[in-house]
């Protein structure tokens, strides 16, 4: 699986100082699929998180090397390298928290408009045919599953979304000890990639 790992050079002093940034380094990880419940998967996930934290130097080096290579090499060579590296990945997954405060826009008439929710959408570069993106935004949480037609059918993608939503509901009920009445939204999108 490929995940984006945040690259941060300093922490923000307050919530008001938070800026929208897009600094991350792609990080390959291996997760076992043997767990029958979220709770059973926690020890494996904890181990992977510890591994990720222990490789901070790798993340920063990867981030800087990616920026340098993209600036120096021709785009066709960068794209070829990315395609070859991505063939080793089964899934792209992102659960990086989104903005904690709403985006504000100005209409053509100058009226200030707040975006109250954000639709997550992620296309993984290269040949990864399945992406799952979980994003929190301004007190909301959404899940997006993007699949290539050659990897999952539309019905399988919808089933995967339903299973993810059910797992999230069950985990919320387990942790909070209460029934979840608000729906967990999942959006699906299909893309056709060259095989």
From TrEMBL:
Taxonomy, superkingdom:
Eukaryota
* Residue ranges occupied by any O-acyltransferase WSD1 C-terminal domain in the UniProt entry: 22-166
Against Pfam families, the record matches this protein to: WS_DGAT_C
> Mind listing the UniProt keywords for this protein, alphabetically?
Membrane, Transmembrane, Transmembrane helix
| Entry keyword annotation includes Transmembrane | yes
Q: For this UniProt entry, which segments traverse the membrane? A: 113-132
Alphabetical list of InterPro entries matching this protein:
O-acyltransferase_WSD1_C
Q: What is this protein called?
A: O-acyltransferase WSD1 C-terminal domain-containing protein
The species this protein was found in: Strombidium rassoulzadegani
């Amino acid at each position: 699986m490929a995940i984006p790992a945040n690259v941060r050079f300093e922490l923000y002093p307050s919530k008001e100082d938070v800026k929208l940034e897009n600094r991350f380094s792609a990080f390959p990880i291996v997760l076992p699929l043997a767990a029958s419940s979220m709770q059973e998967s926690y020890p494996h996930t904890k181990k992977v998180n510890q591994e990720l934290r222990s490789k901070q130097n790798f993340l920063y080096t990867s981030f800087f090397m990616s920026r340098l290579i993209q600036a120096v090499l021709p785009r066709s060579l960068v794209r070829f390298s990315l395609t070859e590296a991505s063939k080793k990945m089964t899934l792209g997954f992102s659960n990086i928290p989104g903005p904690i405060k709403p985006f504000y826009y100005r209409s053509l008439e100058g009226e200030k408009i707040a975006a109250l929710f954000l639709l997550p959408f992620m296309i993984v570069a290269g040949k990864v045919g399945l992406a799952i993106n979980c994003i929190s935004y301004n007190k909301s949480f959404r899940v997006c599953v993007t699949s290539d037609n050659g990897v999952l059918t539309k019905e399988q993608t919808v089933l995967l979304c339903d299973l993810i939503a059910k797992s999230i509901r069950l985990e919320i009920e387990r942790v909070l000890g209460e029934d979840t009445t608000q729906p967990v939204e999942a959006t699906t999108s299909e893309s056709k990639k060259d095989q």
